Amino acid sequence: MQLPDPEQLVQQLAAALKPRLHANTALVGIHSGGAWVAQKLRQQLGATLALGTLDISFYRDDFSSIGLHPQVRPSDIPFAVEDAHIILIDDVLHTGRTVRAAMNELFDYGRPASIELVVLIDRGGRELPIAADLVGARLELTPNQNIQVTLDPNNQLKLSLHER
Amino acid sequence: MTKNPQLSEDGALRHLLTIEGLSAKLLHSILDTAESFVSVGEREVKKVPLLRGKSIFNLFFEPSTRTRTTFEIAAKRLSADVVNLNVSASSQSKGETLLDTVDNLAAMGADMFVVRHAQSGAAHLIARHVAPHIHVINAGDGRHAHPTQGLLDMFTIRRYKQDFTKLKVAVVGDVMHSRVARSEIHALTTLGVPEVRVIAPRTLLPKGVESLGVHVYNDMAQGLKDVDVVMMLRLQNERMSGPFLPSAQEYFKYYGLTAEKLQIAKPDAIVMHPGPMNRGVEIDSSVADGGQAVILPQVTFGIAVRMAVMSLLAGT
Question: Whose CB has fewer CB within 10 Å in chain B, the N or C terminal residue?
Answer without folding.
Answer: N
